[in-house]
Amino acid sequence: MKRYRGHSTFNHISTYNCSAEELYLWHSRPGALQRLLPPWEKTVVLRQTGGIDPGARVELKMHVGPFRFRFEARHVENIPGRMFKDIQEKGPFSSWSHTHFFENEEEKAKLTDHIEYALPTHNLLPPFITKSVTKKLEKLFAHRQKVLANDLALHQKCSSRPLRILISGASGILGRELLPLLKTGGHQVWTLVRRPAEIQKNEIFWDPVKGYLNKDDLPELDGVIHLAGEYIGLGRWGEERKQRVVDSRVKGTDLLCRTLAELNRPPGVFLCASAVGYYGNCGDKIVDESHPPGTDFISEACRQWEQSAKPAQDAGIRTVFMRLGVALTPKGGGLQKILSSSPLGFIRSFGSGHQYISWMSSDDMISAMLHTLTCEALEGPLNVAAPDPVTNLELMQTLARITGRPLLFPVSAKILHLLYGQMASEILLSGCRISTRKLKDSGFTFRHPSLTEALEFILGT
Predict the structure, then answer these.
(1) Across all residues in the chain, what is the average pLDDT?
(2) Chain segment 14-70, per-residue pLDDT in tens
(3) Which domains does the chain have, with CATH numbers?
């Protein structure tokens, strides 16, 4: 960072195993901005129009500590394959411009991010203020470099040709992260929605409760990723709630698979979400995809969920049941609840703390979905989690160490049963230690194989 009279500059240089043209093209596609936003920042893209061409605009909702503000930028220059530039129109800076330069250098692509900015009363500010901005920018661009390098490597392996993909559950935690990944790979994506569809956004209406999906609304597809299903929640389960959980999965899957089977040209592959809860409470035993289902509610729900995809299998569609582990992301799910409800420290353990958790960073999980979509050797059940499951106690200890928050008291199994009943038994106190050999042997590369790596990446520590 250099500080001049009235403004400061920041430069970040990074190189990638591709051409400058490929690197520029990645940045020009929908989803690029979303992929580069650090998960710990809680930044939300409110509006984005025009790509990166001059006149294009983006509006973000951002957080800095307890403060919230909007940042609005406009693209002012674009030389395809070489550079593009955007400037702040509204935000916390007196001025801000960010120019991306793309060059070929020794069989690699070189990206130079050049930023010029000024803060209010810039000349009067003490040096530690601009040093703080520099530190924040260095952290941000180090994150961007990791994401970009990993995404490019994934697409070089799995996105050799553009695919036409349909997604259900695109508004869920994983769906929101999956869409930008697919789009930056050059794939064309359609989404199923249960509200009036916006055709220009490649939306298709369906109503799984009433059994409505018009096959004539579907384009010619290469693959389908089915993630839809009612969130099971972390609270007491009533019989009505449990039935909704089962119906949302079974009815939606059956409807979608029967519709796909009726197409003149069915898609080549159907990925159906399931969960490691299929196996039930396995203690410390390592289980692979051949292990039978458990006997509890979640196990039976997963068994019915997978069984309802039979019409796709009968139609000759390569069908994969992705038995997903616990997705780690501060944007939703269990980790978000733990972080938001534990400002002073973390519960030491739930029950004994010896129950195993088969976890996976959300980045790895969506990457595994793209890998599975294009890996023709994968079929049937597939465990999708990191290669190193940990106990509940190990998870909380690692989280405390990385965030610098203390570990507090444990919560007994008896109290959890009193508070949450069956949910406590099947989620908080149940353990599953799965093998991911099938996924690894198919050639998948984990970005975050260890829990420490995953948490440091998603929390920015």
Answers:
(1) 93
(2) 999 999 999 999 999 999 999 999 999 889 999 999 899 999 999 999 877 677 889
(3) 2-157 (3.30.530.20), 163-459 (3.40.50.720)
Residues 93 and 119 sit within 8 Å (Cβ to Cβ) = yes
Phi, psi of 137 (to 5 degrees): -65, -40
- Cα 23 to chain centroid distance, Å, stands at 21
- What is the rounded CA–CA span in Å between residue 291 and residue 422? 23
* % pLDDT > 70, the chain: 97
Q: 């939300």: which residue's tokens? A: 44
The answer, yes or no, to whether residue 3 has pLDDT greater than 50, is no
What residues does 434 pair with on adjacent strands?
287
Q: Tokens 């349909």, residue?
A: 166
> What is the structure's pLDDT at 200?
93
The whole-number average pLDDT for the span 292-301 is 94
Tell me the per-residue pLDDT of 147-193, one tens digit each, with 9 for 90 and over: 999 999 999 999 889 999 999 999 999 999 999 999 999 999 999 99
Say what percent of the chain tops pLDDT 90. 79
Q: Are 145 and 137 in contact (CB under 8 A)?
A: no
pLDDT score of 207: 96
